Amino acid sequence: xxxxxxxxxxxxxxxxxxxxxxxxxxxxxxxxxxxxxxxxxxxxxxxxxxxxxxxxxxxxxxxxxxxxxxxxxxxxxxxxxxxxxxxxxxxxxxxxxxxxxxxxxxxxxxxxxxxxxxxxx
Length: 121
Hints:
Elements: E1 15-23, H1 25-28, H2 32-50, E2 56-62, E3 78-84, H3 87-100, E4 106-113
Antiparallel strand pairs: 1-3, 1-4, 2-3
């Protein structure tokens, strides 16, 4: 049986990016009033701004059905899957958490990949 032969993976345009999202101790140590009136509006504003940078949200995944509290060994609560135009835009998106102070409450990590060639063309 002949093996599969292919060259190095090609970096796609746009980039396929998975954003891992985790609540940190800052979130858990914040009052309900602060969450409602300060943190969540800031988070919604940042995520809404991502719609204007050429990124396309493909889907989300939230692990909260069978979990509560800290993210644990998985290291994330939710994932956001995007097509993003370029690497600088990915860096700008992660930096938006630092720039707004949201990194006190949440951790955001980007992983760059590509569509899985056996399932997507």
